[in-house]
Automatic annotation (TrEMBL):
GO terms for cellular component: cytoplasm. Belongs to the FGGY kinase family. The keyword Kinase applies. Keywords: Kinase, Transferase. Residues 334-544 form the Carbohydrate kinase FGGY C-terminal domain. InterPro entries: ATPase_NBD (IPR043129), FGGY_C (IPR018485), FGGY_N (IPR018484), FGGY_RbtK-like (IPR006003). This is FGGY carbohydrate kinase domain-containing protein. The keyword Transferase applies. Residues 38-306 form the Carbohydrate kinase FGGY N-terminal domain.
Length: 602
């Protein structure tokens, strides 16, 4: 049985035949861990990373290990076997660098990209690749093979879709699952578990295949608010989960996934930080160099771990005395800036925002609704712009000779150009160059996976200086996209006036300053650069009962660093307002061009 309207599932408790689909809340307050350090693991697009943190959120040591990726047109795949080996390497290296013994690790947590993992009854990989290579059992988050499936799912206008901005993205799991069923029938019949990558990592570590409320709500259309009114952060009761809309899965052609009490997609669900099983199994503990039984917290998606790792990192000078803690946190948006960028904001009331994912109840911070915007290619786009330019090899050589990164050298070139040309501010260098950064579609707020990137203002110049201009214009295009998301969210009920940034791109001073100038908000950087790893370690700290819950741990382990303020020069604002209008027009022109060509081909 299921609620007639899953949107109101919290109004009734639904009985289900055994084995029951259970929700496992985090442990009750009052039982605390004795000291120790906490381990966070993050599997990104290109590497697995591990970090050791103390109870104040100070990073004691970190390490990374590369992971393999296969790219063939819209199909992007990875291997869970390869990823686990990389995780083990990174964990051992981090512990060694931090001079931490296995018995010092009081708890650990996993975060990862929202990639889709397929395994059989024994936990062995099942291929999701045209190649039939069994190693390739992960469809990576940014894989866009399922655009057609997403369109067909969205055409059904199911009630669950209003909780993902009005429609699923091809980066979510339902379209990818439908693609596998329609194209790889043998793999479909072999797979016994379909899991988000962070859930699979926790399963591989503990043997417990309980799924995270974060992953299921944000990527699988699970309705977390089915538990509203039944659960509070300090409540330790087990509760029956009633958030799967079985009619939705049947209507889109995936009814077989909800057979057998949803065993293939998750029969038990837990809030992030809940201690899984009996902790690390003897096998996984040996592989990781840790002790059997070490508590493991239910996982988070990597961007959401970044939110947990940074959202309370507000210095006293930036705090608003006239606002309660609850009101203040709802004025913030976290930018998790890596290969892509995720824009995370929370509210106490559910806000439906067209083209923006959510509202997701308790998917990041318990008892808050999460709004999740995003740009599918940011760091990846900057890499693409630089690496595919004629000047790239020369630039790389010059950077190496100066022992700086390519991006540090580009920033220096831009400063030199601004001085040489005697312009009033550096941003004005890009006045003739405009970029629409939708090179991998638009995730938010227009939610158009078919959108294409645009560069307006190209010349025959192949110099390093011209590459620096393209790089600057691309950063600005990305920042205009974030401004569009912030304005769109505020127009639909949010009151965002402060940004926090973490991830690799947050280490780029030009990138952050351009965002502050363009959006007109101060940007707070955390004390610790590795916010995603910190967020993952919070899960371990909560699982070890060092803290009563996620938000309690955040208040202790988050800490602010530098604050970057917008320029006070009114000319900078006037300039960016003008460029922003051009930015917005580029997509409108694209729609017009698309329509013109479609009519020509009729």
């Amino acid at each position: 049985p299921r609620p007639r309207d899953p949107r109101e599932a919290h109004e009734e408790v639904i009985a289900a035949p055994r084995p029951r689909l259970r929700l496992l809340p985090i442990a009750a307050a009052g039982v605390m861990s004795r000291g120790g350090v906490f381990l966070g693991v993050d599997v990104g697009t290109g590497s697995a990373r591990a970090g050791i943190f103390d109870e104040k959120g100070k990073l004691l040591g970190s390490a990374s290990s590369p992971i393999q990726i296969w790219k063939e047109k819209d199909c992007i795949e990875q291997s869970s076997t390869d990823i686990w080996l990389a995780v083990c390497t990174a964990v051992k290296s981090a512990c060694s660098l931090a001079n931490v013994a296995a018995e010092d690790v009081a708890g650990l947590g996993f975060a990862a990209t929202c990639s889709l993992v397929a395994v059989d009854a024994d936990g062995s990989p099942v291929s999701v690749s045209w190649s039939a290579d069994a190693r390739r059992n992960i469809i990576v988050w940014m894989d866009h093979r399922a655009v057609d499936q997403a369109d067909r799912i969205n055409a059904r206008n199911s009630p669950v879709l209003q909780y993902c901005g009005g429609g699923v993205s091809p980066e979510m799991q339902a379209p990818k699952l439908l693609w596998v069923k329609e194209n790889l029938q043998e793999s479909w019949s072999m797979a016994c578990r379909w899991m988000d990558l962070s859930d699979w990592l926790a399963y591989r570590a503990t043997g417990d295949d309980t799924r995270s409320l974060c992953t299921t709500v944000c990527k699988w259309t699970y309705l977390g608010h089915a538990h509203m009114g039944q659960w509070r952060e300090l409540d330790s009761r087990d509760m029956e989960a009633c958030g799967w809309d079985e009619v939705f899965w049947e209507e889109i052609g995936l009814g077989d996934l909800v057979e057998g009490n949803r065993a293939k997609i998750g029969r038990s669900v837990a809030f992030p930080g809940h201690a899984l099983g009996s902790g690390l199994t003897p096998t996984s503990a040996k592989e990781l160099g840790l002790l059997p039984g070490t508590p493991v917290g239910t996982s988070l998606i990597d961007a959401h771990a970044g939110g947990v790792g940074v959202m309370e990192s507000v210095p006293e000078a930036e705090s608003k005395a006239d606002l309660s803690d609850e009101e203040a946190i709802c004025r913030r948006m976290v930018l998790v800036c890596g290969t892509s960028t995720c824009h995370m904001a929370v509210s106490k009331n559910k806000l439906f925002i067209p083209g923006v994912w959510g509202p997701f109840w308790s998917a990041m911070i318990p008892e808050y609704w999460l709004t999740e915007g995003g740009q599918s290619a940011t760091g990846a786009l900057l890499d693409y712009i630089v690496e595919n330019h004629a000047a790239a090899p020369l630039l790389a050589n010059h950077a190496a000779s100066q022992s700086v990164s390519i991006f540090e050298l580009l920033n220096k070139i831009l400063l030199s150009m601004a001085h040489e040309q005697n312009i009033p501010f550096l941003s004005a260098l890009s006045q003739d160059t405009h970029v629409l950064p939708d090179f991998h579609g638009n995730r938010s707020p227009v939610a158009d996976p078919k959108s294409k990137g645009v560069i307006c203002g190209l010349t025959l110049d192949t110099s390093e200086k011209y590459l620096a201009l393209l790089y600057l214009a691309t950063i600005q295009g990305i920042a205009y996209g974030t401004r569009h998301i912030v304005e769109h969210c505020n127009a639909h009920g949010h009151k965002i006036d402060t940004l926090l940034a973490c991830g690799g791109l947050a280490k780029n001073s030009l990138y952050i300053q351009e965002h502050a100038d363009i959006i007109g908000c101060p940007i707070i950087l955390p004390r610790e650069n590795e916010s995603v790893l910190l967020g993952a370690s919070v899960l371990g700290a909560v699982a070890a009962k060092k803290f009563s819950g996620i938000h309690d741990a955040m208040k202790s382990m988050n800490a602010a660093g530098k604050v970057v303020h917008p320029s006070s020069d009114p000319r900078v604002k006037k300039y960016h307002d003008a460029k922003y209008k051009i930015f917005r027009s580029l997509y409108e022109q694209q729609l017009s061009h698309r329509s013109t060509m479609a009519q020509a081909l009729q």
